[in-house]
């Protein structure tokens, strides 16, 4: 009985989706409220088109909502992972091999979102989702 309870990959997928989608959503709402023009400036400074900054809306608002609901999670996970790769490239590339003030990896939050999104990409939403059983 207890083995059956703890051997529930669908519940594990839900427990992965909730923080990866839910916590990222705070970042997106903050950028929606306070703007994200600074992202456009960083993109231009890096030689990339500034209009890519609108990807923030897809990667930090739409994707987390879809991940939370369990809808199109693989597409949403790719969007969120892409935003994290861009964030690391634009803002944090100088910290890739650094430790933080308390000895932890300097990019642990970014790594959590990136690898959490990749895990969701490969695992899917699971049974506890709006889109039960669909591949994408």
TrEMBL record:
Q: Which InterPro entries match?
A: DoxX (IPR032808), DoxX-like_oxidoreductase (IPR051907)
Any one of the GO CC terms:
plasma membrane
Transmembrane domains' residue ranges = 61-91, 111-130
Output the superkingdom of the source species: Bacteria
Instruction: Give yes or no: UniProt keyword Endoplasmic reticulum.
Output: no
Topological type in the membrane: Multi-pass membrane protein
**Cytoplasm recorded as keyword:** no
- Main localisation: membrane
Listed name of the protein: DoxX family protein
């Amino acid at each position: 009985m207890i083995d059956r309870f703890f051997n529930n990959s669908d519940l594990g997928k839900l427990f992965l989706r909730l923080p990866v989608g839910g916590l990222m959503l705070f970042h997106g709402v903050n950028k929606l409220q306070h703007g994200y023009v600074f992202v456009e400036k960083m993109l231009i400074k890096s030689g990339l088109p500034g209009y890519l900054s609108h990807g923030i809306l897809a990667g930090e608002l739409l994707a987390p909502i879809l991940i939370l609901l369990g809808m199109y999670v693989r597409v949403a996970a790719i969007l969120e992972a892409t935003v994290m790769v861009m964030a690391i490239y634009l803002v944090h590339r100088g910290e890739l091999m650094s430790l933080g003030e308390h000895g932890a990896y300097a990019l642990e939050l970014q790594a959590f979102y990136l690898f959490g999104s990749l895990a969701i990409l490969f695992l899917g939403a699971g049974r506890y989702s709006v889109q039960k059983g669909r591949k994408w």
